[in-house]
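Proteins fold. Shown next:

***
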Amino acid sequence: MSTTAVGLEEAVLDAAARLYVWALKDIPQDLRDALAAASERETSVTGIRVLETIRRNVEIADEQQNLVCQDTGIAVYYCRVGERFPLHPAGIYRALKAGTERATVEHPLRSNTVHTLTRENTGANVGYRVPIVHWDFVPGWDGLDVKCVPKGSGSENMTFLKMLVPADGVNGIKRFVLASIVEAGGKPCPPGIVGVGIGGSADYALHLAKEAIARPVGTRNPDPLVAQLEDELYGLLNETGIGPMGLGGDVTVLQCHIEHADTHMTLNPVAVNYQCWAARRASAHIAADGTVEYDREF
């Protein structure tokens, strides 16, 4: 391995260790703003108290430099890799795994990763195929963007997939999303972000739903038809009356985001992934020379 690659791998490792802890401690400003707006919009006495408690929780985490939620989640990274970035993806993955382990040991963080069958803990939030990394490759670019999105089990358990058919149409999508959130109720710690993935194949629809929850709160899909559906679902979901923590109220979701892909003529897969109010994410850009710039959203 070249000296440049060794230095870059160390830079990515350091970035991953910082991003994992940072995401768990410091929720993004767009989420803070959404929680503040939810407090102003809520009319239920119980809902107002729940939202006040959530916001106080965030303030205490800031004051004490502590975790926003005790569930440190499963480590998930999104990587945009430039074609000309000098470090091979195998080296990037090695660094992300080592960085996750370092953050867990040095902070320390609760280790959640277990063997699927034996349930034996596999180490410092790492294990077989963990952390989970999603890749996107960019032609003609020499940089690397990394986003860490730790995902707690309470919200991740509220994930749904349905293979709709074209005849179900847009109304079929709405019915499925609404039914999913009603079934979830208070279990995923609402209000949160509802991510919807439409199209592609079954597995890709689920991936798109996860991408959707990692967007800044309130951003809209560039396709105007999809953006319109985001607005419609956002309104419908807040009419369910589930409210903060499922105790009733006006604010059931902070936002609904949709990502989509073209699909087969006889398919229409739809996936729903929920992100709780502690919608944690942190991003960094690593240049080809190893320079790291934090808080650069992508």
In short: The chain has a mean pLDDT of 96. The longest helix spans residues 3-25.
